[in-house]
Design brief:
The complex is a heterodimer. By secondary structure, chain A is α/β, with parallel strands linked by helices. Chain A is built from six helices and 16 strands. Chain A has helices spanning 95-101, 119-122, 146-154, 174-180, 200-209, 221-233, and strands at 14-26, 29-37, 47-50, 67-70, 73-77, 83-90, 108-115, 133-138, 159-165, 184-188, 195-196, 214-218, 237-241, 257-259, 265-267, 274-276. By secondary structure, chain B is α/β, with parallel strands linked by helices. In chain B, strand 17 (261-264), helix 6 and strand 18 (283-286) form a beta-alpha-beta unit. Classes of the chains: A alpha/beta, B alpha/beta. At the A-B interface, strand 14 of A face strand 7, strand 8 and helix 7 of B.
């Protein structure tokens, strides 16, 4: 595998102080571009923990916990040695993301990552498989799929990306996905972009047309549950990425437990966030 | 918090990483008979089994760590949601999810680098189970001491904590004391009216030290859903929000007993840690802060040494109880 595919490399996580390069409005959301000292890259599907706001002259302890965020894009080395540029996408949903939206250029925000097991680590067949890949993103879950779509396309896999959201302004990263040149489908609940309705409808169509497909779904729990059920009926494998609340991201707070279908719990941060959908007890997820 | 200094020589020169001294200050302390290279441990339940934090810090540069509380058999915790955010803190209701004593001894301990001080944390639903577990763990050469977690619900007594009932606590400490000759700490619950009474019970029954405080019982509600946030309804509040309460309890316990105290509760900086030492703690534990800054414990240890140097203390150990109290208090 060439270095450009980059997906099998699991970098050791770092605790770093990221520098804000830009904060760009992205529809109803935000795109945060960060230069991260000590960052050596991530695998598609991994995540990071981002401090809730700037590290200023006074250390803020409220809100206390960092926010788990998908690593949306890897943009390579910055102009400074030992530093790489990444992007995250988010929507303001509470105090923490509100403080992130206040970040200004050159401010510093603490960060831990890359964390967790990405798509390649969890789907052992992904590296060799040739069948169609159906990537389904809902809401901010879209952010987990860009690098995976890029890597799969570079491997020559037939990739279709289906993005669902409330309205056109919630289709974060749309132009980046367009630039990948892969088939791209939008579904919005208000019909302001693509087909009106839930993204599961176009997924059902594609599953009928794509024997031997693998589904990778990231979004709200009901969406992922529905994708898993559709894939199951079509005899397709389905992988999801869970977004449970967590305090640490590296396996010690045990806050992010997700019930396993076979009993017991998996840690979203360490065993996931990507899981084979069949491994999850969907009825037990809050 | 002071900036972490990852260099090897302090202003005094000559000190190397892992050395007990930074500059002219002797960082070493003894806690309940356990010699520590510095006064900063990390708290049970916030540091896993140690290896999880190895990517972020050199485990031999902290005083030591208290491992996740163990039960005799592996144990699953509560269903999600298990955590909630709170002002300057968080709630958790994990319920002692752990790998069990066998996996701890055979897999977790051998995975640690040499030179890491490990304190094992024991939990059970009755004194005999604690004692059985402690007897198995105490024999392992990598275990420097035992901390018994007396701050979780007691099944037989209908949900009360060992640490809330002096008679139950006395029975627990006495039973465990017979199971180990090694250093024995008791981690007390803050959910009591008079912490000094509980501290005295531990001392009378032969504990070598006390760790306090554990998380404070608390609750949070999701008003939109009209439901408790935690599946367990009740959880434990930790983080900077509880620090002044923890400090008060350490001070009160220190007035009441002569055995050493390990102070824990919301420590987020070297300054916070020094407060606990001044109030009578011989060492401290960093807990919830590890979640957001897994490198914090090393920086806090260095900051304590800086404080000692600035204030003319030759040894960090001399900070213990060095609080200047108003007359008559």
């Amino acid at each position: 595998m060439s270095a450009n595919h980059g997906a099998a490399i699991a970098s050791s996580p770092v605790r770093s102080r990221a520098r804000v390069l830009a904060q760009i409005p992205e529809g109803h959301g935000r795109r945060l571009r960060l230069a991260v000292p000590g960052w050596s890259g991530s695998a598609p599907g991994q995540f990071l923990m981002l401090g809730a706001g700037a590290e200023g002259s006074v250390v803020r302890r409220d809100p206390l916990l960092p926010r788990p965020m998908a690593i949306y894009r890897e943009l390579g080395a910055s102009e400074r040695a030992g530093e790489r540029v990444i992007e995250v996408l988010f929507r303001v949903v509470g105090r923490g993301t509100g403080l992130l939206a206040d970040l200004r250029d050159a401010e510093v925000v603490p960060l831990v990552g890359p964390l967790g097991r990405g798509f390649d680590a969890v789907d052992p067949e992904a590296a060799e498989a040739a069948g169609p890949a159906l990537l389904v993103g809902g809401g901010t879950g879209i952010a987990s799929l860009y690098e995976w779509a890029r890597v799969l396309a570079a491997r020559g896999r037939p990739v279709t990306v289906l993005l669902g959201a409330r309205s056109a302004g919630d289709l974060l990263g749309w132009s980046d996905f367009e630039a990948l040149g892969v088939p791209l489908v939008a579904a919005t609940e208000d019909g302001s972009a693509g087909v009106r309705g839930l993204v599961t409808a176009p997924l059902a169509d594609r599953l009928r047309e794509s024997p031997g497909a693998t589904v990778y779904a990231v979004g709200p729990t009901p969406m992922m549950r529905a994708c898993a059920a559709l894939a199951g009926s079509a005899g397709a494998r389905c992988y999801v990425s869970l977004e449970n609340p967590m305090a640490c991201g590296f396996g010690v707070c045990l806050g992010c437990a997700a019930p396993r279908s076979g009993g017991g719990f998996a840690l979203v941060c360490r065993n996931g966030p990507v899981f084979d959908a069949a491994e999850i007890d969907w009825a037990g997820l809050p | 918090m002071s900036e972490p200094r990852h260099g090897t020589s302090g202003p005094g020169g000559g000190a190397v990483a892992g050395d007990a001294r930074v500059g002219e200050v002797d960082e070493r302390v003894v806690l309940a008979g356990i010699p520590l290279r510095n006064a900063v441990l990390t708290a049970s339940g916030t540091f896993g089994y140690g290896t999880e934090l190895a990517p972020f810090l050199d485990l031999t540069r902290i005083g030591g760590f208290v491992a996740k509380s163990l039960t005799l058999e592996p144990r699953h915790g509560n269903p999600p949601p298990r955590i909630a955010e709170a002002p300057a803190g968080m709630l958790n209701a994990i319920s002692i999810e752990n790998v069990g004593v066998k996996a701890f001894l055979e897999e977790k301990l051998p995975a640690l680098p040499e030179g890491v001080v490990v304190i094992a944390s024991a939990f059970g639903t009755e004194p005999g189970l604690y004692a059985e577990l402690v007897a198995r763990v105490t024999a392992h050469p990598r275990v420097a001491g035992i901390e018994i977690n007396a701050s979780c619900p007691h099944v037989k007594a209908g949900g009360i904590e060992f640490g809330q009932d002096p008679k139950l606590l006395a029975e627990l400490v006495a039973t465990v004391r017979r199971a180990t000759a090694g250093p024995l700490l008791v981690k007390l619950s803050p959910n009591v009216t008079r912490i000094a009474d509980m501290a005295k019970v531990c001392e009378a029954e032969g504990a070598d030290g006390i760790t306090l405080i554990n998380a404070i019982q608390a609750m949070e509600v999701d008003v939109e859903r009209r439901r408790p946030v935690l599946s367990n309804v009740l959880g434990g509040l930790s983080g900077p929000a509880i620090r002044p309460i923890a400090l008060r309890m350490v001070w009160q316990a220190a007035q009441a007993v002569r055995i050493p105290i390990c102070g824990v509760g919301g420590i987020a900086s070297a300054e916070d840690a020094v407060k606990f030492l001044l109030c009578g703690a011989s060492a401290v534990q960093v807990g919830t802060l590890n979640y957001l800054d897994p490198t914090a414990a090393v920086a806090i240890a260095e900051g304590i040494a800086d404080y000692a140097r600035r204030h003319g203390f030759a040894r960090v150990a001399d900070l213990t109880g060095a609080l200047v109290s108003p007359k008559g208090k």
